[in-house]
Specification:
With 416 residues, the protein is of the alpha/beta class. Helix content is 35%, strand content 27%. It has 13 helices and 16 strands. Helix 1 links the parallel strand 1 and strand 2. Helix 7 packs antiparallel against helix 8 and helix 9 packs across helix 13. The longest helix is centred in the last third of the chain and has 20 residues.
């Protein structure tokens, strides 16, 4: 078995697998180390709602075979109101999607090692030159990439990322049949992806229903265990309790039954990224937090992150005599901030404002969106300050002040 490669990637999720696809297509020797066993992959990491848009499907050449349902609209709900936006999308069968990325990369020459848990970087002269996995096995590369998500065993030991516990978002999702997707009094969710802002269901977060055909859908919620959750949450409730509460109280689920084996759990971080790279090393995907206030689009962000890391690696490796130093890998930071998560700070502020707002403000937001043009919402999601301002009211001043105080407290805490 070979122990030296151009690039070593830890993690076979969307970011790692896409990076491997691109590098293998360019002719590089790349190996991907994945914790899970191949026979059941991705049983443990089959966590995503996998809602995406046609732009992502086309940009990365994703086939129709992995799509459960194409959708025509996105719906935003509050406790008593809703807003419908015409926007085509796709709900993916996440397991099939991940397996496709692996197969496609392998077809171009990428090597995958399953049952390979990465444990630590191998350091020589203060630089990472490889990784250890499964305790004492080693593999070396000119460039090493951490795509392991929040676990980040390499990025953390290299002090590249600092994932704060108070910014940790957790999520749970089931798939159901027997859902009333066109219930009177609610938005029509046939061929739709719905996101709901309601602290009774997901305090400090949001919940969702993604239609997957006929009377079936993916149903889940997530929240951040931060000040907003403490303000609106219940001390005696776990995330499972909140989902059960929603299922018990929403009439759309009255006759719904869970599809056996279709339960997914996941986590991410909602915060600004720190460092993205160092000598011979890049962190990609959910190892480096990204922000998309309304639509999430975590899959797309991970895929984009993997792609710009592959572009960066190629820009160095294709030139003889150029070393993958931090300086020469700095283009990754530039591309990440330009293409993956532009306006990250502003988008994070909008996300925090959304989670701080009370339920009655969510109702008013839905009514505001109904009178504004669709471009306002799209631009606000991109971090356009003018568009965000259009969504604010005079009565939002206390929210803004509370957010400013939270940010100040965090800044002061980091100095202690």
């Amino acid at each position: 078995m070979n122990d030296r490669y151009d690039v070593v990637i830890a993690g076979a999720g969307p970011a790692g697998a896409q990076c491997a696809r691109d590098l293998a297509a360019r002719g590089y020797d790349v190996v991907v180390l994945e914790t899970e066993g191949e026979d059941e992959f991705p049983r443990q990491s089959n966590k995503s709602t996998a809602g995406t848009f046609h732009s992502m499907m086309g940009a990365f050449g994703i086939p129709d075979d992995v799509v459960m349902q194409y959708t025509d609209s996105v719906v935003l709900e509050s406790p008593t109101e809703h807003y419908v936006r015409d926007q085509t999308g796709a709900v993916l069968e996440f397991a099939d999607f991940k397996r496709y990325l692996v197969k496609d990369g392998r077809d171009d020459g990428a090597e995958y090692r399953f049952d390979a848990r990465v444990t630590a970087p191998i350091m020589e002269g203060g630089e990472i030159t490889g990784v250890t996995y499964n305790g004492d096995e080693e593999v070396y590369g000119d460039i090493v990439i951490d795509a392991t998500g929040p676990s980040a065993p390499l990025a953390k030991k290299l002090d590249v990322v600092d994932l704060e516990r108070e910014n940790h978002a957790i999520g749970i999702e089931y798939e159901f049949e027997g859902i009333d997707v066109d219930r009177p009094g609610f938005a029509d969710l046939r061929d739709a992806m719905m996101l709901r802002l309601d602290h009774e269901i997901a305090p400090g977060g949001y919940s969702w229903i993604f239609h997957t055909g006929e009377d079936t859908a993916k149903v889940g919620l997530c929240y951040i265990q931060n000040g907003s959750h403490a303000r609106y949450g219940r001390d005696d409730f776990t995330i499972d309790d909140y989902l059960s509460h929603w299922l018990d109280t929403d009439p759309r689920f009255r006759d719904a039954t869970q599809i056996e084996g279709k339960q997914h759990r996941g986590s991410a971080h909602i915060q600004l990224p720190g460092e993205l790279h160092t000598d011979r090393f890049m962190a990609i995907g959910d190892t480096v937090p990204t922000i998309d206030p309304l639509w999430g689009e975590g899959i797309n962000k991970c895929m984009q992150s993997g792609r710009v890391a592959a572009i960066t690696a190629d820009s160095v490796l294709k030139h003889d005599g150029i070393e993958p130093t931090a300086e020469n890998l700095a283009v990754y930071d530039t591309l990440w901030h330009r293409d993956v998560a532009p306006n990250a700070k502003t988008r994070l502020l909008m996300t925090q404002l959304l989670y701080l707002a009370p339920n009655d403000r969510y109702d008013r937001l839905m009514r505001d969106l109904q009178r504004l043009d669709d471009d306002t919402l799209a631009e606000a999601n991109k971090g356009n300050v003018r568009a965000i301002t259009q969504l604010l009211e005079l009565g939002d001043a206390p929210l803004v002040a509370r957010l400013a105080k939270q940010q100040l407290d965090l800044d002061l805490g980091s100095l202690v």
